[in-house]
Design goal:
single chain, alpha+beta, Anthranilate synthase, 19-stranded antiparallel sheet, globular
Length: 423
């Protein structure tokens, strides 16, 4: 039992920085129907798998089956190239491997004020010595870096309008119904303190799918509000987000903004299109007739924004492999569009940056083959060696899209990341 879970979490994250492999997943006590743990920390790789997209899902399947233990890691968006005949040739300033998972030596599971510790190959008194070391950690910032950060735009405003109009041309010709178009904000020759930056971002946003990931010199600092996919037993759950509205400190105005999002025909049509795509993706591995929409266009409120979220479920046979469920739905519909393959081709042609881990996913597999993965959005990515910092934002473009409003929505989504980096 832990007397002060928030303090212990901060101390534990500071303690974890000594390791090359760290995955921290935090629900920030956000009430949700499908949560197993309040937070999980996995550190110190016993075994690992790193690969590019070539046969990536087959390699992951072999690794997950062979290890048959907890594994934590990520899938980049560019694994689309393993699923379909697609390419990723855009600029990549971050250079994360396409897929990385590891079997941790040390695991910490939080539920309420209880912390369960699981160690591989535990040495005598290792629990006690680690706990003592964690509790002696100073949870305040350990390394201030006060370099001013100059954020640059990969796509400037006029060019953004041109690209959205080009995408609208594809929609009007019937090539696609909807596509998620993303743009990158970045800083070069920049050093940040990853943990300090993550803590600031998480404090601003308090999202249900926050994650801090460190793989050697590469970091993800994520304040994601979105679940990609969860497997519990034979049940699969997907919770796509489409539809965003800003918050107001004025209670009445905030209620009005929430209601306007609920009533917004464009946002609802975006969400419903992606729900249809998710239903189709889930049906590839589902028991016939088991795909159902549990919630359609429900508004959830977060510290920074209101979001429109739907919940889609299916049942699978016990013989269906967990990795096959992910492969058949990847990349997630909320970050691609419809029809999916056409949308991904158009996205690649119009975007300027390789997405990499942005709009990919971070999560874990359990020893029983269950899993839970987020969508990597509202996130800062950092390559420490290259001193390159990046965050991307995007929005769904449909026939009803107004380029100026889409641009403004991107700025709303980017607000927390910019605040954290510039202040």
């Amino acid at each position: 039992m832990v007397k002060n879970p928030p303090l212990f979490k901060l101390q534990l994250l500071h303690w974890a920085q000594q390791f090359d492999d760290v995955v921290w997943l935090d629900s920030n006590d956000y009430e949700q129907n499908y949560s197993n743990y309040d937070a999980v920390l996995a550190v110190d790789a016993f075994t690992s798998i790193q690969t590019d997209y070539h046969e990536a899902f087959e390699k992951l399947k072999e690794y997950q089956t062979h290890v048959n233990d907890w594994i934590f890691g990520y899938l980049t968006y560019d694994l689309k190239n393993a699923v379909e005949d697609l390419k990723s040739n855009n600029f990549d300033g971050l250079q994360f491997p396409d897929l990385y998972f590891f079997q941790p030596k040390k695991l910490f599971f939080f539920k309420g004020n209880q912390v369960e510790m699981q160690y591989l190959n535990m040495m005598d008194d290792e629990f006690e010595s680690d706990l003592k070391a964690v509790q002696q950690m100073n949870a305040s910032t350990n390394q201030q870096i006060n370099n001013p950060i100059k954020i640059k735009l990969r796509i400037h405003k006029d060019e953004y309008f041109e690209k959205i109009n080009a995408m609208l041309g594809h929609i009007h010709r019937g090539d696609i119904y909807e596509a998620n178009f993303c743009q990158e904000f970045y800083a070069e020759d920049t050093e940040i303190n990853p943990l300090e930056t993550y803590n600031k971002l998480n404090t601003i946003s308090n999202p249900p799918f926050a994650s801090f990931l460190k793989i050697n010199d590469k970091y993800l600092l994520s304040a994601s509000p979105e679940r990609y996919l969860k497997k519990q037993g034979n049940t699969i759950v997907s919770q796509p987000i489409k539809g965003t509205a800003k918050r107001s400190e004025n209670i009445e105005e905030d209620k009005q903004l929430k209601q306007e999002l609920l009533d917004n025909e464009k946002e609802r049509s975006e969400n419903i299109m992606i729900v249809d795509l998710v239903r189709n993706d889930l049906s590839k591995t589902a028991i016939k007739g088991s795909v159902e929409v549990e919630e359609l266009c429900k508004i959830y409120t977060f510290d920074q924004v209101h979001q429109m979220i739907s919940t889609v479920k299916s049942k699978i046979e016990s013989t269906t492999h967990a990795v096959d469920v992910i492969k058949s739905t990847f990349p997630m519909g909320s970050m691609t569009g419809a029809p999916k393959i056409s949308a991904m081709k158009i996205i690649e042609a119009l975007e300027e940056t390789k997405r990499g881990l942005y709009s990919g996913s971070v999560g874990y597999f359990s020893p029983t083959g269950d899993f839970d993965f987020n969508v990597v959005i509202r996130s800062i990515l950092y390559n420490e060696t290259k001193k390159y910092v990046s965050y991307s934002v995007g929005g769904a473009i449909t026939t009803k899209s107004d380029p100026l409003k889409e641009y403004e929505e991107c700025l709303v989504k980017a607000k927390a990341m910019r605040e954290v980096l510039e202040n």
